[in-house]
Amino acid sequence: MGGGGRGRSDPSDANQGEGNSQSGDPTWQPFSTQNPAFDEYYKEQAIVSPEEWDTFIEYLRKPLPAAFRINSSSQFCMDIKSQLENDFMKSLQSEFVGGDEAEAIRPLPWYPDNLAWHSNFSRMQLRKNQALEKFHEFLKLENEIGNITRQEAVSMVLANDLDVQRCNLLIHQTKRMCTANVVVTNHEAQHFPGCRLNKNWVGASEVNGQSEASPNQLLFDRVLCDVPCSGDGTLRKAPDIWRKWNSGMGNGLHGLQIQIALRGLSLLKVGGRMVYSTCSMNPIENEAVVAEILRRREGFVELVDVSMELPQLIRRPGLRKWKVRDKGTWVTSYKDAEKSRRAAVIPSMFPCGRGLTDPADENSERDDLAGQETKPEDDTEQLENDAAPTTDLEEEISNLPLERCMRIVPHDQNGGAFFIAVLRKIAPFPAGMQKPMSKRAKPSSEKDELPKEVPDKASEHVNGLGDKSADALNEKVPEAASDHTDGSEAAVLEIDSSNMHESGDGSARGTGVSGNGGTDQMKAGGKRKLQMQGKWKGVDPVVFFKDEAVINSIKTFYGIVESFPLDGHLVTRNEDTNHVKRIYFISKSVKELLELNFQVGQPLKITSIGLKMFERQSSIQGTSAPCSFRISSEGLPLLLPYITKQILRASLVDFKHLLQYKSIKFSDFVDSEFRDKASDLQPGCCVIVLKSAEEMPLSGLDTADRIAIGCWKGKASLSVLVTAIDCQELMERLVARMETGKDSSLQETETTSDNAIDEEINKVEKPEDAKTIEPAIEG
Ligand SMILES: C[S@@+](CC[C@H](N)C(=O)[O-])C[C@H]1O[C@@H](n2cnc3c(N)ncnc32)[C@H](O)[C@@H]1O
């Protein structure tokens, strides 16, 4: 139904891709969802059987249904699941004419605990069909709050990213998890720093006489290489790829994909697993890459058979034979490639990975490819046998167990296409294999593999590559940062406001220059800025926050119990402790990583670390409070069980009024005991917890009981320190719990005087800007 009227929604209505609708523009032309080169390529590669071809193409042309995942760390996880199971599943069914699909929405069978959902409505249908409005509003709000993540069903995974904006997105997503155990970095994955300590180094903990071993190398238990790819598995949500697609896109990325995968394996612990994944269907970006890394790391790495895992996820085995398309012709073997094309078509693209006759040449080609020392190949004899060029086009078949890879195509479960291989490191790599490729050496993907005729148009749409160089991306950071210097909570740019340039008064940006400076002064400011930024352009270095006076004032003010490890776990971006605006809490393992990073000269470009826990109260009135740091909304869930002062329980009616009106005079609270306790709090930040059925001690709060908000205690009133949207969400959840009778105490505490107090409260002046979390603090 794409059109906007009320009516039942049939997925087959929207047979043009997502984004493929008119939206009132008379000049608009639908995207073509055809590309003869695409058809020819994939028919020949036989990624689906000939009988399946029509279904495959039919699904590729349909818009992608919306899928989303419930954030298991959300305090409302169970409420949301129950709303989906008991409310939306039924109400949406009456709006749905399903074609092949029986259900309007359903939990993904392969994902645990009904936490991931598939809807049979495309994003366009959700936007346009009024009957779906309630569900659409629900998805939008819960996504914004962070209770759900709208995501393609096949991509529920995390990684480092070269693109700063993608890093921002990662930070936004991970922030919702409220964990102190996350670091986001911004590196070319193929050059990701190893952070290896000199063998003779004596760890800090040993110097301190502690027995704990410090890590002396950055190695991971699990690595995910979700690599840049041609992205033709996302055709359903990005139909413009139909027009841009050509076989050179995959060929051009093959070399970089190998480099990234090899680097990932170097950073993996022995026994650890690495997932190599793409959202492309192309064997050159998939099986050919996996085959090459197995050849290069033979004896050190194995391909894991995961065919028994997630049995409800419909998938098909990886291919063992495929062909290479170059300049409009099929090449079945490297030796058949035209001589002039041997820079663009390389041996690793073919199933057997064989080069020409001379093993020395072969090895030098491979060295170039990944810039790493290679294991000597043991196929000399075979290579010599292959010396004579063949005239007939013999098919190459890989002898590697590539059927252990998994390929998902769109009609498997009405989703996108994806490729996954799981690799296990079985032995440590010799020293030569550990090094990342030298940055000075021209990457092989530029030097060797990128076919010259790959049109600009093609590289534009390479998933995650585009035409952005690292420097170009880095240049954008300060610009984005300046958008969010006001402390607002616009989440997507969190990285920019909080992690870049914690340089106190902002003058380093040249924004606060006054007096006799003019242009020269600004230039000088600019210079100073570069010096202050440390080695990574646009990102201030992370430093441990060790100011004992400040830490003690925080501990004392909030009565934080000693068992909560603040000491040594706090970091900032500003060495000048007087101007620190935000203090982040880091977990033990992140702390170890950071210590290692310092030991090895800070090679990591860290764009986000840990959990924002404290923020300097910036308003003038705020500085008169005994503690100049408030607890951030993100940090509150973690800290809550450890706070013993400045914390009060409010009845439902008072809690609701706070959410509703944002600022309440003490005299207007319904509960007289709460009124007295609130006015007795010290001025400054405080925490208000909703009273629950069982009056547990605050230190015993569990996740389900953590309905708490940060507030500001002023002279005569309490004001919330929560965004308007979070207030709205909390209100709605509380109302829903009351309606379903899930929490009986909520109904009991509701008083008959509610209407009366509402009238009273309406007289209270409401804060002007409900969007900001800076409170309307009175003096
Ligand atoms: C398929 S996407 C990964 C998406 C990721 N799993 C997520 O959920 O955000 C590939 C990503 O690789 C990034 N990229 C491109 N070239 C890179 C490189 N050389 N090193 C690291 N990341 C790179 C792109 O910016 C893009 O976000």
What does this protein look like?
33% of the residues lie in helices and 14% in strands. The chain is α+β, with helices and mostly antiparallel strands. It folds into four domains: 11-22 and 29-63 and 65-150, no CATH class; 158-186 and 485-616, no CATH class; 216-468, Rossmann fold (3-Layer(aba) Sandwich); 626-762, no CATH class. The strands form six sheets. Strands 6, 7, 8, 9, 12 and 13 form a six-stranded mixed beta sheet that branches. Helix 9 (248-266) runs parallel beside helix 10. The longest helix has 19 residues, at 248-266. It is globular and about 90 Å long. The two termini are 56 Å apart.
SSE order and pairing:
Elements: H1 36-45, H2 53-61, E1 65-70, H3 77-93, E2 105-107, E3 116-122, H4 123-128, H5 133-145, E4 148-150, H6 164-175, E5 183-185, H7 204-207, E6 220-226, H8 241-244, H9 248-266, E7 268-278, H10 287-296, E8 301-303, E9 316-317, E10 324-326, E11 329-331, H11 359-370, H12 380-385, E12 406-408, H13 410-413, E13 418-425, H14 431-434, H15 444-449, H16 456-460, H17 470-483, H18 494-499, H19 518-532, E14 543-544, H20 548-558, E15 570-572, E16 582-585, H21 588-599, E17 606-609, E18 611-616, E19 629-631, H22 636-639, E20 647-650, H23 652-661, E21 663-665, H24 672-680, E22 684-690, E23 708-713, E24 717-720, H25 724-740, H26 744-749, H27 754-762
Parallel strand pairs: 6-7, 20-22
Antiparallel strand pairs: 1-3, 1-4, 2-3, 5-17, 7-13, 8-13, 9-12, 10-11, 12-13, 14-15, 15-16, 16-18, 18-19, 21-24, 22-23, 23-24
Helix pairs in contact: 9-10
